[in-house]
Each structure stands twice: as structure tokens, then as C-alpha cells.
Amino acid sequence: MPINHWPENERPREKLLHRGASHLSDAELLAIFLRTGTRGKTAVDLARDLINRHDGLRPLLDADAEAFCQDKGVGPAKYVQIQAALELGKRYLATTLERSDHINSPEATREYLRLRLRAYPHEVFAALFLDNRHRVIQYRELFRGTINGASVYPREVVKEALSLNAAAVIFAHNHPSGVAEPSRADIQITRRLRESLALVDINVLDHFVIGDSEAVSFSERGLL
User: Which spans in 25-105 are helix H?
Assistant: First the structure.
């Protein structure tokens, strides 16, 4: 049965308007972007099939254009729409952090860094540079490496922090393996960075390790 024949409170768009986006399933949210289904399938059916075929919503959204467009019923236009929506989400979180008087929401910071870093197939080391009131000055990706690690140079980090007149910094890097557990090398480089930045009176507030489903905080673990 076509979606426009469904009861109004069950249609994804109307359901979102009346109850809010959080009340929709993954398939219903995706169906809003797909807009149409295929012969014999509604947009919700198609969305559910796509999610199942890619073994979950995240692998589907992380797929490149070629892999995404191989599925029947989707093409470049739908891929572009979904990627644009994901980028809007990242920028919304970035704007939220930048407009805050200070970093007062660890969860917002964690989620922003997860969205920024978790999809990379290689390791990326990044930093949020903050002023003396812990307001975000800028997010920067500093070093990139292979899936086995990234070379991080404390001197370059200090130089970047000084150029931005930062008073504090939050580091983050991803583990392409998907496991967010900090390694011995992660702990060692964090200590080196903290010691180097302390020489110029810049505080390291935290370091997040980003995995598939979580982001581990050094501060929460007592590793700083």
C-alpha cells in the first residue's frame, strides 16, 4: 500500500511533524530523504532493505557514492541529499560548540568529535583549540596516518596553539579498527603533548579516542 494511503499518524513526514524526529525509526527517517520507493515497495520498505543490506544505518551512510548507488532504487541525487544532511549535522554541532560561552557539555563535545572522526579509514589526530574561557576557537585536523597510527609532533601542536592564541586544547583521534580503547602509545603521546604545552601555559583538558560506537575520554579514565 502506498504511504499516502497509510493512516496519517503512521506516515513518516506527518509523524515527524506531530511527534518529533526522535519518534521515527531509522527506516522512517531515511525514507523521508528517499521520498519514493520502487515497484511494489514503499520508501520505508526500500529504506529498510538498504539498511539491512549494508548491515546497519551507519555502514549505509558511510558508503561511498559508488557503493551506495549500486543499490536498486537509489542514485547520485539521493546520495548527495543524504551526504548534505550529514554535513549539516556536523556543522550544527560545530556551531553549537562555537556559540557556547564555554565547553559545558562533554556529551556535545564527544558527539561532535565522533561525527568528525569515526568514518575515516585511516587514523586522524585532531584538536579543539579553546580560549581562556574554554570557548572554541577552532577545530583542526593536525596529522593523518595509516590504519596503524599517525605521527604526532608536539612542536607542531605547540606552534598551532600559539598561532591561535589558545589557552587550552582538547585532543581526539580515531581508531579505524573500531576499538576505542587507548593504547600505550596514545597515553605516551598525550603525556608528551601535555608536558610540551605546559611549557607555554596551555592546558590539555581531555583526549578522546574515537571508535565505532563510543568515544573514550582520557579525563574520565584518569589518564591525564
Answer: 26-34, 43-53, 57-62, 65-68, 76-99
What are the tens digits of pLDDT across the range 167-205?
A: 999 999 999 888 889 999 999 999 999 999 999 999 999
Give residue 40's pLDDT: 74
Kind of pairing, strands 136-144 and 168-174? unpaired
pLDDT tier at 105 (50, 70, 90 boundaries)?
Answer: low
Residue of 189, 194, 181 whose CA lies nearest to 221: 181
Q: What is the DSSP code (8-state) at residue 123?
A: -
d(CA 212, CA 180): 7
43 SS3 class: helix
CB–CB of 86/61 below 8 Å? yes
Q: Given the C-alpha cell 503512521, which residue does it identify?
A: 10
